[in-house]
Predict the structure.
Amino acid sequence: MPMNVLTLHRFVRVSAIAGLALLPLAGWSSDWQVSVEEQNGLPTVTRGGGQVMKAKFDFWAANWGWTAFDTTFKVNGPYHYTLQGSNKALDFDLTADIRKEQAQTLSWAFDLNAHSRQAGVMGGGMVFEFDPAQIAGDMGAPQLLPDNHGWSWGKAGQGRRIEMRFDPPLANVYFERNNPSELRAFFYKDPISAGRQQVKAVLNITGDIDLGPTPTERFGLADPASWPNDQLDWRTAPVDLSFLNAAEKPAGKHGFVKAVGEQLKFEDNTPVRFWGTNLSAYSLFKSPDEEIRQQAKRLSALGFNLVRLHHHDSPWVSPNVFGDGTLVRDTQQLSAESLRKLDLWIKALKDEGIYIWLDMHVQRALTANDNIDDFKELAKGGEHVDLKGYAYVNSSIQQAMKRFAEQYLTHVNEYTGLAYKDDPAIAAVLITNENDLTQHYGNALMPNKDVPRHSERYMKAAKAFAKQYDLPVDLTWRAWEHGPSKLFLNELEQRFNADMIAHLRGLGVKVPIATTSTWGGNGLSALPALTVGDVIDAHSYGAIGQLEKNPLTSDGMINWIAAAQVVGKPLTVTEWNAEPFPLPDRHSLPLYVAGTASHQGWDALMQYAYSQQAFNPGWRTADNWHAYNDPALLATLPAAALLYRRADVQPATTRYVFAPTPATLYNQEITPRNSPLLRTAMEKGQLQIALPATPELPWLKPAAIPTDAQVLHDPGQSLLAADASEAVTDTGELKRNWQKGIYTIDTPLTQAATGWLGGRTISLGAIEVQTVTPYASVVVQSLDGKPLGQSRELLLSLGTRAVPKGEYKIPFNVEPLEGTLSIQAPAGLKLFARDAQAQLKALPTTYKDGRYLITFDGKYMSNWLFLK
């Protein structure tokens, strides 16, 4: 549920120089890597693509008041970097020269300049965070070097060791609260004296650890300013997949969507799978009417058949569904004009065969005029209250949510004449966004949170639950721990969900209802309460290098989605993406998500987001929440839509069901981060979770495990060989080599390769790809339904890096693809590209021995080609 990116992140600038030699691309000799993090210039350690040690700068003023430290990182050449940072609150600057001095040595020459004396401050410097699982395993706990000289990590005698030594010694090096997973290395402590100081840091590695380059070096040290501008028109689509929606115009013609077992179907029993996105915030309320209709057509042409309307109620959006934020004094009335905008979006999307997902709550800010009990203790002197967590124990908040849902869902759309609840184009509703008790917001109700009336209600309910089921009271209320508390938190969440669902059904809602989502690190113990809804919904955000995650050791964003697939329930994903923007490999994600989703049998996928900004001519920005003008994501989003909606990838033929006992499920954390089973099973077959009958949760109704399933009980079990470097699905159509960082899709209608393709030859059924460009996506698809090799109408989708010209500024510079593509196809076809004016431009190709050979010269770039 991202907000405006400028309000959430300190921006870290990274630049690179041109004309430098390309570094090795992938396939290191060891799973263990040390490199420099481009976000802050500090070391990072990964194992199998997963981060096991990360570092950051943190500086605090008096009373641990956090202060901003802005940094600029530059790649000067292979393994040579500079860092500049400034802290305005504490009045000092920092520079660092960073370089690889030897094969297994990195050095930092820090130069700190404090411009004035600062007294009464806490100080600060670097914070190193170590993976607890590695501490408990082979690496052991990190050790402090004597006299504040630094730290080391790695058990004596095992060979693998990392040491970071500072000279002269730092002001303080210590474990925060004696926790071995968080080590603080301070340049400054109270007071900060004016003047300069220089510190040399040397990181040495021994054993089976590689010292690797930064992502900028791996992807190629070219100057993006030399690349061509993107040819993307934000009002029209570069491809036209609207034929996928032709039979659905208007959306709802097959009746209301329903959940039938593990599948979504229409009222007439037609099965459906949704490929969707999010329209969010300003895009909903500030887009001109004519642009709303235009974007609905464009969304259909891009292959979407589901759109979620999101951040309609969030206070940082003005106007929102309540109206102008400077005028609104409560959230009890909905704005007629804002509803008209939503009406038009729904009508325009419906006319294009696109269904709509509605949220009942995202980030609504309650006010003192909303008649909320005990408002003052929640507001703590402020004017607004975020209801998350508190809604579960405050009946007045529940009533406010019900009133909103009634106003929203019974509102009659002036363009369709139907109330939202009566419109079969509305595919599903969500009660509350990212608002669970089981992992996140139970802690907001603890006795130490200074919300005494809310804590009192929580504690009373916890004691009653403990007494009813003979559980230890002192463990039942402790929301941050596993054990009896997870039973109680699921129970409390379920009570709220059941009541809200009954209210929605009473209003006449007919479509599937999702309660909230599993998100943000939720373990499997968060799933039981979600089963009260008709579907299980998940959110998942990744980072760079998803294709390189070794499932034997490391989790990826795709694993967190798979861990939400419960036996007997459809799975929806209302948000997926990766950050920070602009990730150089983001064009791989749609293919990876769509291919996996089709194989796993997931039912609805929604990218976050198509746009958070209004569709207005003139001023436009680029960021992670605006896919509509991002040539890297749009390069492969249509291809992903086509392969997923057409079911080009076959569903798995093998079903693995993880069936934990109640003790296993509730008494320990089980997540993709710590469970090899959750990571490895889905690389081969379909992964599902069977929730156990639980006496303390009599409402939990487990579905019958299919008789053909392989039932597994140990979350620590791996289904891959210990030395595996790649996996092929049981259908043979999907292959991921994490050591090389390559993912391929090989089906009759879609063949694709994405990842570190540079310098390799990738041969699939009817295509052969060879690229010089280090990281790329190449997709060839049949548009006429005939298998590749026979099709006379082909779509070619090409993904490479796309970089905004400035900080969040468009247009993008798009990296030209260099290499060749050979395609088996009938004679007589011609190759075309669509230019910025939507005109087809003929391109050269040769035909020999039944194959077309297309050469990409590394100069001209179009993300979409047509062979027809």
